[in-house]
Design a protein that fits this description.
The protein is 43% helix and 19% strand. The chain is of the alpha+beta class. This is YkoP-like domain-containing protein.
């Protein structure tokens, strides 16, 4: 991506941030931005057998695309791009868990949920994956995410066209208990009491 386009995107991202309810987990040092909201969708069964039902309070995950684009600048290899994203997700999850632990409404939260085309390899990190219904909203989101990939990826249009079949839009999710158990700072004793 050229420097001028990245700079314009940075201005737009700043405006977008002010106009939405998205919150930074840790500005400039975390690949996630989040919003706290009520889940709307089909019931989700997580890998640790928790259920996220419609109406449950969730942390909605958003990849901070502009931040990721700045990290990708100058990288042209697909494998390096994928490894970079995975590394930053792994570094960001403990900070997300710490952020969630500090929220006033943390007891109400059932899990974290995101929608992405970049879902390959997330299951070993604790996420479950499911299809999304192709409503007008998800069709728009798929178009938007493809546009982002076209901008971020060095081979742009050609790469996104080749991803159409192998990179469908998916929902990725994890229960709050699993997030905190895997990435949180609170260690439970065998009796269930914090140490």
């Amino acid at each position: 991506m050229n420097t001028g386009l990245l700079m314009l995107w940075g201005y737009w991202d700043s405006i977008y941030q002010r106009c939405t309810r998205l919150r930074y987990v840790e500005k400039g040092n975390n690949i996630f931005r989040i919003v706290l909201l009520r889940y709307r969708g089909e019931p989700l069964i997580t890998s640790d057998q928790r259920i996220i039902n419609p109406g449950d309070l969730i942390v909605k995950l958003h990849i901070h695309n502009y931040y990721y684009a700045t990290l990708c600048k100058g990288i042209k290899n697909d494998l390096r791009l994928a490894l970079l994203l995975r590394r930053h997700i792994m570094l960001s999850l403990p900070k997300l868990a710490a952020y969630l632990e500090r929220l006033e409404r943390r007891e109400e939260i059932k899990g974290i949920v995101g929608t992405t085309m970049l879902h390959k390899g997330v299951e070993p990190l604790g996420f479950s994956i499911s299809d999304v219904p192709m409503t007008w909203f998800f069709r728009y989101k798929r178009w938007y995410l493809r546009l982002m990939l076209r901008i971020i990826h060095p081979e742009g249009k050609r790469r996104v066209q080749s991803w159409k079949q192998e990179m469908p839009l998916k929902r990725v999710y994890m229960s709050k208990d699993q997030l905190l158990g895997r990435y949180g700072s609170t260690i439970q004793s065998p009796t269930g009491e914090g140490l």
